[in-house]
Amino acid sequence: MQMVDMFYKELEDAKKRKVPFIIPIGTIEYHALHASCGTDTMVINGVLRELEKTKEIVVCPPIWYGVASYAVGGPETGTIHVDVDAYENYIYCILKSLIYGGVKNIYCVAHHQTEEAGLMPMTLACHKAAKKVTMEFMEDTRGKGWWGSNDYADYYENLGSGDDPFSYIKVIPLMSAKCQHKIGGFDHAGKFESSLMYALYPDHVDLERTKENTEWFALNSVETSMELGQFMVKCALESLEEIIV
Predict the structure, then answer these.
(1) 3-174: CATH homologous superfamily?
(2) Matching Gene3D superfamilies, A to Z (predicted)?
């Protein structure tokens, strides 16, 4: 279900049943000469499009602008970078509306700079915003000292479950570290990311232009293939099926 298509009663029902609400955490960034600048966001949208076919989820509108950084190229390349502090506050506001609105099963799914599922500025901002919202919500609704009260004597027994407040919001990569190992690699605008994009949005990858790339990170984009991309989609779906509950 796409959140923007849902009516009030459908949203309320999804909240009560703790259907996963998923926020694609994207960026607009230079992807060499052959792939569109929306790649990082679109691959998430594309995989979630497939996940919707087998799993009940609520897909929230994607966050298109993110903490891209200018590590790959400056603003002249089409990359749009949002300062990490401003971004954290923006994400905080979105998550706060959802949590205070009754959504208690949220997944922020990122693809940008998630090699080995490591933490980078954008994912760190999401983690910080999530924990800040959770702490504020628990204090506002349960009072100061909520964690130390006897009402939470079963806190450790519930870790990681739907009753654990610190599991209300999870920040996860589109491709888990396990998934990346199974595929055999991860890259930016190279054969792996380009193949993933090609399998999901073939009209957003120009195979002829892969031959024009001169930057080291995109040289092996000439090896982009539908077969590899479809395998990556399959691996991502298997991983998300397991992680998103």
Answers:
(1) Creatininase (3.40.50.10310)
(2) Creatininase (3.40.50.10310)
Q: Tell me the β-bridge partners of 173.
A: 110
Q: What is the pTM of this model?
A: 0.97
Nearest partner of 188 among 80, 72, 27, judged by Cα: 72
Strand 169-173 relative to strand 21-25, pairing? unpaired
Ranges under pLDDT 70 in the chain: none
Which run of H or of E encompasses 204? none
Measured at the alpha carbon of residue 233, what is the angle toward residues 29 and 208, in degrees to the nearest 5? 55
The three-state secondary structure class of 12 is helix
Check if the beta carbon of residue 108 is closer than 8 Å to that of residue 130: yes
Q: What is the rounded CA–CA span in Å between residue 169 and residue 93?
A: 13
Beta bridge mates, 172: 109
Amino acid 162: pLDDT? 87
- Asked whether the beta carbons of 41 and 27 are under 8 A apart, the reply is yes
